[in-house]
Amino acid sequence: MNDSLLITGGTVLTVNETNEVIEVGAVLIEQGRIADVGEAAVLEAKYSNIEKLDAAGHVVLPGLVNLHLHSGLIRGTAEDLPVFEWLTKYVDPKHRALTDELAYAAARLSYTEGLLAGTTCVMDMYRFMHRCADAAEQLGLRATLAPYVVDKPGMDYFESLDKNIRLVEERNRTANGRIQVWFALEHLTYCTEDAYRRAAKLAEKYDTGIHTHGEESIAMARRLHAETGRWPVELFYDRGILGPKTVLAHCVWLQDSEMELLAKTGTSVAHCPVSNLKLASGIAPIKELLDLGVNVGIGTDGVKENNSLDMLEEMKYVPLLQKARLLDATAIPAEVALRMATIDGAKALGLDKEIGSLEIGKKADLIMVDFRKHHLTPIIRGKYNNAVSNLVYSASGSDVSHVFIDGKPIVRERKLLTGDAEAIRLEAQEAAEKLFELREPFIPV
Ligand SMILES: [Zn+2]
């Protein structure tokens, strides 16, 4: 059978309900879906005439879900600034200068970086997202597109809800279901009350989700509270956008009442630990959210905030920060961080029935991480099995060897198969130089 492949001999992290680990396991891909999962010896005997991929020395796991990303081209060029100075001095002028072709180059770069590091699914908040849809479609990435909508006066260089509607109508649930389009709003200080209310109605009408930035800065949370008498999540609640199909990024500073609202409404949070550290936002109360039953996924944020789109690196920060904040080494175990980066991210996007774990019937979005490295040695089986710990605390994106999405090979032996990775890099270099040239007149003196 042409569409079948048995990936066999690796340690399989299923991320199923019981976090089952199969020490010498196999996964059968058939017609883009997972047709079987189990012991390698059993599956090899059962499917003896099917093409095999030897995964010995590798860990096989669900593809990583990057729940909050901004494609971008300004990596490493707007550094060490307080968040609002950073936004007004460099980021907003970048938005003024951006064109659809530059956005396309940015999306191609960011998606390629993610794919090579094991990210199979992203939620990207960016501009000119019909071009991001093109990029995701060509590269074979699974993407939820969330355009930066802003409607405060003087900021019409951002996207509008009308353009967001068009994108939903044209691209939602396209590319064999790999592309979704959500309604998205930049931030409480960039969008009017009316924009949130309208987005809530539109998301219901089109049966899609809503993505926006929760609060990063304590100063801004206090300012909003002083102005309105309500904390940011309470404002979202008043404006009707909270619910199981809404994802709030960051949520660093939360009152108890806000955490309860997130739990009550089933709203998900995209935790972006590195961005929160770099922009000096603080450490989000993730342990408390999880204890309340709030669904939390992990995002890298963009290259201007992070400066890397490596979800394996990002995953490590999640338990580390909570342990240090609470002085509790048990605060978040590695297994929980892995769930957040896979199945919980999928759940936030409404995709947990289809992806996020290696279970029969799900779409075959999975990755292989090559553990035959000094920094991933030893591989121990049995009661001291260290596969999950080594993955979360020792692996990085450059250890990812193979990536499959919808059962299709996207990366093989670290080589991108769906595009010319070097050409994408060179195009992005050229696009970034152009963007800096176009942005210069907008930089405030
Ligand atoms: Zn963001």
Automatic annotation (TrEMBL):
| Keyword Ribonucleoprotein appears in the UniProt entry | no
| CDD domains (alphabetical) | ATZ_TRZ_like
Q: Name one GO molecular function term.
A: hydrolase activity, acting on carbon-nitrogen (but not peptide) bonds
Keyword entries, A-Z: Hydrolase, Metal-binding, Zinc
Q: Where is the Aminodeoxyfutalosine deaminase/Imidazolonepropionase-like composite domain?
A: 25-47
Identify the residues that the record assigns to the Amidohydrolase-related domain, covering every copy.
Answer: 59-409
This chain belongs to the protein called Amidohydrolase
The taxonomy runs:
Bacteria, Bacillati, Bacillota, Bacilli, Bacillales
